[in-house]
């Protein structure tokens, strides 16, 4: 009877040690995944900033294209610039008024 209890206790201790080892391994894996997750979130944030800068650059290039068009679009460019000047004057008058 005492021998059976010792064997049962030894099995319980072995299983407990195995569970503890698995817990530590999972804890390390979880920490590695959390670190990777943070890194990926930082990458996403950086890509969002880069994306926004590229969108602004596209808008600047579109505006530059309108302002400095080829000869065929010169009248359109003049009209666009005139409209921009009128809009700016309107804004200034609203700010002063």
Explained architecture:
The protein has helices at residues 2-67, 74-96. The protein is mainly α and 97 residues long. The longest helix is centred in the middle third of the chain and has 66 residues, at 2-67. The mean pLDDT is 89.
Which overall shape is indicated by the principal axes computed on the Cα atoms? rod-shaped
Helix amount, in percent?
Answer: over 70%
Point out poorly predicted stretches. Answer: none
Main β sheet profile: none
| pLDDT averaged residue by residue | 89
The proportion of strand residues reads: under 5%
Number of helices: 2
Determine Rg (CA atoms, Å): 35 Å
Structural class from helices and strands? mainly alpha
Through-space gap between termini:
101 Å
SSE run:
HH
Number of strands: 0
Please write out the topology.
Layout: H1 2-67, H2 74-96
In short:
With 97 residues, this protein is mainly α.
Key descriptive features of the protein:
97 residues, mainly alpha, rod-shaped
């Amino acid at each position: 009877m005492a021998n059976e209890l010792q064997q049962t206790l030894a099995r319980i201790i072995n299983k407990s040690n195995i569970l503890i080892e698995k817990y530590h391994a999972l804890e390390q894996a979880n920490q590695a995944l959390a670190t990777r997750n943070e890194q990926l979130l930082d990458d996403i944030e950086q890509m969002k900033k880069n994306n926004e800068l590229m969108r602004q650059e596209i808008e600047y290039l579109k505006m530059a294209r309108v302002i400095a068009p080829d000869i065929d679009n010169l009248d359109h460019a003049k009209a666009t610039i005139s409209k921009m000047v009128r809009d700016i004057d309107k804004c200034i008058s609203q700010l002063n008024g």
